[in-house]
Amino acid sequence: MGPMTESLPFADRTDAGERLAALLDDREVSADLVLAIPRGGLPVGRAVADALSVPLDVTVARKVGAPGNPELAVGAVGADGSLWRNDDLIARLGVSEGYVDSQAAREAEAAREKRDRYRGGRDPLNLVGKAVLIVDDGIATGATTVACVRQARAAGADRVIVAVPVAPPEALADLETEADGVIALSTPANFGAVGRFYRSFEQVPDEVAMTYLVG
């Protein structure tokens, strides 16, 4: 194993998933199932689920964008309506409650449609009393990941751990207040974007992403 395989960048999402699974094994982290955040989280989640010999499902949340700036998250909402609000930003921007509520309802509906499309008619995994691992290909802000954690808790999960290949320290700090554990292979302070930490980071088409759920 040369130095490149021991450090960043990851070759691709499957490589990242395999290395994340090895870290989970080293730390003796176990789970009953893996929930991947599509689309990029599915190849990572598949590798982790296979290594742990547990089933894989999807968890979907969407950003609630600021007025006139959809990339800036004033919140995030899960497919079940579980909402995380960035109250500081909402107050600073003077965003109305009506705007947050209406946007959250619209994004929750979009998240439900996406979740159902990925499942293709399969029943969701039962989370009641389970130890759940939420996996993505990386975290930039953590907004949608927080909504996914809340969604898993609302579905009855007993323990929720977030595991990702790469994330900035401040995003992990926020997640640690929500999840029972947060694990990352790399936490670079000079972050930028998730794709910087992969040699191959092509978009994963829906039809390809769905194939990772069948395994």
Automatic annotation (TrEMBL):
CDD domains: PRTases_typeI. Its EC number is 2.4.2.10. GO terms for molecular function: orotate phosphoribosyltransferase activity. Signal peptide: none annotated. The keyword Cell inner membrane does not apply. The keyword ATP-binding does not apply. Residues 16-183 form the Phosphoribosyltransferase domain. InterPro entries: PRTase-like, PRTase_dom. Keywords: Glycosyltransferase, Transferase. This is Orotate phosphoribosyltransferase. The gene is pyrE_2.
